[in-house]
């Protein structure tokens, strides 16, 4: 069930020739709108795994992303002795939706269930509180950034690469052909 009333009082908010219905308790901001492109090249699988861990701000033991290389590049290359790998990332952030968390913005169902809770927690009879948390959760999402990301990955034989034919240039050209629909 919903904690916050994000539906009532909807109004049309225009963005890039489209109108979006946004509730009165929600703020839509396009100040966050950005578009980023980046290219990373890797001469080893370990470099790719370190990059992946860093880009998702992962913690834990090294090697947790070892299956990621095969998924990303479509092959299970243990070492990149004869090949180089590249990853081209295109990330877009369109807008941010923010919900002001305060009792006035809560749904009627949530307010009623809060009123129905006992004034004190009874360890001998926790069911009412547990059911409340099952229905509404323990966290409230008050902000969402809308956007997306597309990663384009490729490998190339090192013998095919040169100063004028770099993997960086190849992955950018391939990505451009891919998104324009003219890849061969």
How does this structure look, described?
With 184 residues, the protein is of the alpha+beta class. The protein folds into two domains: 1-30 and 102-139, no CATH class; 36-92 and 151-184, no CATH class. The protein has five helices and six strands. Strands 3, 4, 5 and 6 form a four-stranded antiparallel sheet that branches. Strands 1-2 form a two-stranded antiparallel ribbon. A hairpin with a 2-residue loop joins strand 1 and strand 2 (18-22).
Strand and helix map with partners:
Blueprint: E1 11-15, E2 18-22, E3 26-29, E4 34-42, H1 45-55, H2 66-73, E5 83-99, H3 108-116, H4 127-136, E6 143-157, H5 167-180
Antiparallel strand pairs: 1-2, 3-5, 4-5, 5-6
Summarize, please.
With 184 residues, the protein is α+β, with helices and mostly antiparallel strands. The chain has helices at 45-55, 66-73, 108-116, 127-136, 167-180; strands at residues 11-15, 18-22, 26-29, 34-42, 83-99, 143-157. 28% of the residues lie in helices and 30% in strands.
Helical percentage:
25-40%
Strand content: 25-35%
Structural class: alpha+beta
Distance between the termini: 49 Å
Taken in chain order, the helices and strands follow as EEEEHHEHHEH
Largest sheet: 4 strands, antiparallel
Low-pLDDT segments, ≥5 res: 57-66
Number of strands: 6
C-alpha Rg (nearest Å): 24 Å
What is the number of domains?
2
How many individual helices? Answer: 5
Mean pLDDT, nearest integer? 79
Q: What is the general shape?
A: elongated
Pfam families: MACPF
InterPro entries: MACPF
Protein name: MACPF domain-containing protein
Organism: Pseudomonas palleroniana
């Amino acid at each position: 069930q919903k904690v916050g009333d994000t539906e009532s009082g909807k109004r049309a908010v225009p963005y890039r020739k489209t109108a979006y219905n946004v509730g009165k308790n929600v703020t839509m901001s396009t100040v966050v709108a950005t578009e980023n492109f980046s290219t990373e090249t890797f001469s080893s699988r370990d470099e790719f795994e370190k990059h992946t861990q860093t880009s998702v701000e992962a913690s834990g033991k090294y090697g947790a992303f070892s299956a990621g290389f095969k998924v990303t590049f479509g092959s299970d290359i243990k070492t990149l002795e004869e090949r180089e790998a590249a990853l081209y990332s295109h990330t877009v952030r369109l807008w941010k939706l923010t919900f002001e968390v305060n009792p006035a913005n809560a749904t009627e169902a949530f307010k009623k269930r809060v009123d129905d809770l006992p004034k004190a927690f009874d360890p001998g009879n926790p069911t009412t509180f547990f059911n409340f948390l099952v229905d509404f959760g323990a966290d409230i999402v008050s902000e969402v950034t809308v956007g997306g990301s597309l990663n384009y990955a490729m490998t190339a034989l090192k013998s095919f690469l040169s100063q004028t034919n770099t993997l960086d240039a190849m992955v950018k050209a391939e990505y451009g052909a891919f998104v324009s629909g003219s890849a061969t």
